[in-house]
Amino acid sequence: MISPKDRFLTVYGRKPVLEALDDAALEVDKVILAETVRGPNAAEIQRAAKAAGVPVQRASAHRVKVLAGNGKQDQGVLADVVAPRMRSLQAALSGGRPPSRVLLLDGITTPANVGMILRTATAAGLDGVVVPRRGVAALDPMVVKASAGVAFRAPVLRCGSAREAAEMLTEAGYGLYALGASARSSVFDVELPQRAAFVLGGETNGVGAEVGELVTEWVSIPMPGEVESLNVSAAAAVLSFELVRRAASPGNP
């Protein structure tokens, strides 16, 4: 059975829901409106949903808060938006054409970073970005905003935790490469197997120990200037487009 969390991105709040309903490029599965929302605000959402052919369900305010995961900003309304390229990591690995290059997010808790990584990876044509449900910022309107809307069509792969993902990828024959500032190997020189996953660690602590012990090799981004490290979304951009360069250059590992 496919979890709804592996099919939809949930947006909450009056304005994000209305924007999703008004966007002809998006498929909204349903709108859930708290029973406490009445008057002009409820009418506006119901009109927009009707115009888009989207069903509206009523639920308790508590239920909406639980589903949104953000009780302070949901404003009593949420929408489940179909994310056509989002699926479980297990489904991706067991399919006929498993992804060859994926990013694995480990402990990245700033929504802006997650959103920008999704935008960059999608622009670079990567096969997947593993976004665990635990330990990483939730895929909410802040992530969608940071991605400039690209999050809806990003190749998101879901699983429980980064450790679970690392184990699944290793068992499936992937080399696991983690970005670390002190690593001797460079992202520009390391030889890669046919299937490789790249771990991007959290803003403060980097790659966690649970994932680190499964890493095949640590790699760094050479920085001749006097800067210790890059923001994780900037590092993801360098890595993603190095993979683009390799794919475009015959004979590159």
Automatic annotation (TrEMBL):
GO biological process, one term: methylation
Keyword S-adenosyl-L-methionine in annotation: no
Gene3D superfamilies per record: 3.30.1330.30, 3.40.1280.10
Domain of life: Bacteria
Keywords: Methyltransferase, Transferase
Stored SMART domains: SpoU_sub_bind
A matching Pfam family: SpoU_methylase
InterPro entries according to UniProt: Alpha/beta_knot_MTases, Ribosomal_eL30-like_sf, rRNA_MeTrfase_TrmH, SpoU_MeTrfase, SpoU_subst-bd, tRNA_m1G_MTases_N
Keyword match Methyltransferase: yes
GO MF terms, alphabetically ordered: methyltransferase activity
Domain RNA 2-O ribose methyltransferase substrate binding: 10-87
Family classification: Belongs to the class IV-like SAM-binding methyltransferase superfamily. RNA methyltransferase TrmH family.
Name of the protein: RNA methyltransferase
Species of origin: Amycolatopsis oliviviridis
Gene: yjfH
